[in-house]
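tool=predict chain=A
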Amino acid sequence: MSGNVQGRPLTEDEKLGMLLNLFLGGLDTTRAAIASIVGNLVQNPGLEQRLRNPDWVKSDLDEFLRFDSVVTALGRQVTGDTELGGTQLHEGDRVLVHYYSANHDSARFAGPDRLDFARDSNPHVAFGVGVHRCLGSNLARLQIRIAFDELLARVENIRLTDPDVEIRYLPGPSRMPVSMRVSFDKR
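tool=predict ok
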């Protein structure tokens, strides 16, 4: 691994920290993204067939990530005095950036509260944005693709075991299903 910070090479501790963040930090969020996609799959007939298309990751994954952003919000510290939406913010103030809300902003997305795989543009912020963009976003995409490739090669007709039981989501800075009992047929 190579790289630099402000013109100096990364230390061994920084390299190790990045690797730990990449592999361990992404386990829960990637698992939650996979579970959220399954949640959408069992609630929307036809999505399973859509995910059987080998190109689904290129065409549909961003819409799943936008619709069910796993990281809903993160705290940040204001680095300089500024105004945001008519509110004066000062250096050192703390703000909570709501990614989930941004991904459901009707000024940015038509019909934001529905899955729409025909969107012309999908500038979601499910992986953050700018210098705060998720370091492991490409690894997460790969893991999600492999998980569904392997799952769908082995099972079909994925459905809720009891369709009357609502899928509940964990509240907080990460949004993921608390539990979801599914049944399927072996291929």
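The domain at 10-186 is CATH 1.10.630.10 (Cytochrome p450). The chain is about 35% helix and 20% strand.
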